[in-house]
Amino acid sequence: MLEEWALGLANSGERAMSFLLTVAMAVGGGIGAVLFRKDVDIVGRAPFFAWSGVIYLPLGLLQFTWLWSSSLIAQGNFWILILGQCLAYAAAGIFYYRVAAARSRDIRGNNTLVPYAFIPLANLWLVFAKSGEMTKPGPDTAPALLRGYKGVAIGFGLFAAFAAAAGYAQYQLVAPMETAAAEVDTTEADALIQKHGLDAVTEAVFAEVPIPYEIDPYTSITRIEIAGPRVDRDLTVTLGGFKMTAQFKKISTLTVCSEPFLRAMVRAGGTISDHYLKPDGTAIGTLIIDKAACGD
Questions:
Q1: What is the DSSP letter of 32?
Q2: pTM for the full model?
Q3: Which of 13, 74, 80, 107 is most buried as measured by Cβ atoms within 10 A of its Cβ?
């Protein structure tokens, strides 16, 4: 049950995952409110920005854990990755509360602005509001290194590192597949197609696929229809809430384009149309892979 929930969540797209992690961070903030209820620290704009960068940088590095997703899915333990992400964001939320509360006291003299720290875009108020905007602030208790221009520079550096780490981790998710697709050797498959013809080889290869054919625990090929160089496949997905996200389409296309025969087939003018269906036969969507999709 946990595994299906985790896979469904990840497949729902970045917005659903971002919302969950935002909630996890807010929960951590609630814990922080209890742990640091007696805090009296005060920080200005620059220290708040710098401390925020310190908190967010590890979250950027955390994105590299997604590189384990394929092996965890194969083991039925993908839910552990999602749980780990939530716990990490909750931990970050605990410390973010402390920094946000100190900034709130700098602006208003109390902790009432803290909730804005956990709301995207609204948290910019804490970044740009002047010290003592609503009350006379006490002395800034942040280290001298984090004040003024030095704090701003450190903050920008940390957030740049956060963005770079997160972006590189996302790139590494598909980079090996892109390399495999670019370097696939189709020499043998090309020779077979040239000797026997595309239609005959396509018919011979796909006729050997047993139906149903399980791709993974949630996806099976339930129909294959061959019409010359065109192959139509029905793929039944039992995972609840499955959506054909842009990331899913890209990975699925790269998977096909990395297979020597399938790559040779589409390069020779063939087309593979994968029709994704719910267990009751309701259409989810279609992915068409042809010569252009494989970059040939």
A1: H
A2: 0.76
A3: 107
